[in-house]
Amino acid sequence: MKQILITGDRSGSGKTSITLALAALLSKNHRVQTFKVGMDYIDPSYLSAVSLRPCRNLDSFTLTDDQIREIFQFGCRGADIALVEGVRGLYEGAEALTDNGSTASVAKILDIPVVLVVSAQSITRSAAALVKGFQVFDRDVNIAGVILNNVKGGSHKEKALTAIEHYCDIPVIGAIPRMEEMQLAMRHLGLVPYREGSGRGDFDARISTITKMIGQYVDLERFLNLMTEIVQPPHQKTLFDVTVDRDVTIGVALDEAFNFYYADLFDILHTAGAEYVPFSPVHDRLPDADGYIIGGGYPELFVRELEANDPMREAILEVSRNGTPVYAECGGLMYLTDRMSLKKGWQDAQKEKSYEMCRVFSGETRMPARRVVSYVEGTSGDDSPLGAAAFRGHEFHYSDVVLSSGTRYAYQLSRGIGIHSKLDGAVTNNTLGSYTHLHPVASEGMFRHFVRTCSKKH
């Protein structure tokens, strides 16, 4: 099996489009397992779509080194190539003086070679200085090759390529011209999720175009030659290999409005003794289950459909009131408030308007609000359906949830914002709603506790 990591010199370097295209090209003749560095849902949805295998996240702020290796080893089973996409610039992380949370840290943990995507717009020889700086900044990171992006023309390409290969002694395996077709559809929190049905046709067409372009401008054979070989332990067990009786059923909201889930969640639920049943708050009726998970997404784009499904909203309110465990993250939290209020001008709205939601938590969601993207660290109290624990996670949203003054909170944050003044994890009965997104492996104990809370034997 072979492995390689693609990262950028900065955000916006073009690494996501390039990684997607290379994954699509390689998947024609290989079994490609993709990974994404960082806490992110949307890039993995694209990588999963082109590789036809669930992309898995690797984040060194939330996960230990051993957990990263276990996820990597488990994900790679049955694959020929492991292709990892980095996050932001190679060395961007959670702190200024450590590489915690960075792509570089994951590259070192996995001992994986790195291809650096450099946005070469308006630079030629300076590109070599940039690459050289990346090389010497941390010599434990193996930068094996470069792909130039946003190249203007023949002389531009030749100058930058010649300078990098001369001064940095690594190959430039591709030089991609600046083209509008290389851009993917964006939204207020990043790329448009693949699962949104309205965008799939456009996404597939655009990926096809990008793949043809990358195939033309990147030397795939040289890219394959930069990969290092790894030997998978034949029978080494991971945390995903626990065998238990699955006597708990958990309904998981999964549709165009709610689709922010890490692939590991479903494996962790299985090892904890739960089967999951997907359901759509937009289209379905609530299935009978021992507990429910409502993840993040873009419910604000489907408020009319969510409001129109009265039976779903009433059923969620009823199961929450009767003590059935419900865990909601971000978009799920927004859905559980009394209403969602969209300001004038938001999504071209002519006036401010409110839409009725599930009324589990007394208060409302307001859109838009300040954009929040940050790591989270805190502790959970024992009144949470996920139990008492210390945790690390992530929050990213463009909304403001304002709850009544009598709301109880299970999370106390030492890092991050939460719902209100470093308080997060609103609790009522056996329902918890938070802005914090948890990685299911990093917070494995909390998800196991949730399954136990859902158990009819509990």
Keywords for this structure?
single chain, 458 residues, alpha/beta, Rossmann fold, 2 domains, ten-stranded mixed sheet, eight-stranded mixed sheet, 13 helices, 31% helix, globular
Write a short abstract of this structure:
With 458 residues, the protein is an alpha/beta fold. The chain is built from 13 helices and 26 strands. The chain has 2 domains: 2-229, 3-Layer(aba) Sandwich (Rossmann fold), CATH 3.40.50; 243-454, Rossmann fold (3-Layer(aba) Sandwich), CATH 3.40.50.
Please tell me about this protein's structure.
- With about 450 residues, the protein is of the alpha/beta class.
- The protein has two domains: about 1-230, P-loop containing nucleotide triphosphate hydrolases (Rossmann fold), CATH 3.40.50.300; about 245-455, 3-Layer(aba) Sandwich (Rossmann fold).
- It has helices at about 15-25, 40-50, 65-75, 105-110, 125-135, 155-170, 195-215, 220-225, 265-270, 305-310, 310-320, 330-335, 445-455, and strands at about 1-10, 30-35, 55-60, 80-90, 115-120, 145-150, 170-175, 185, 190, 230, 250-255, 260, 275-280, 290-295, 295, 325-330, 335-340, 355, 360-365, 370-380, 390-395, 400-405, 410-415, 425-430, 430-435, 435-440.
- Strands 13-11-14-16-25-24-23-20-21-26 form a ten-stranded mixed sheet. Strands 1, 2, 3, 4, 5, 6, 7 and 10 form an eight-stranded mixed sheet that branches. Strands 18-17-19-22 form a four-stranded mixed sheet.
- The model is unreliable at about 185-190 (pLDDT under 50).
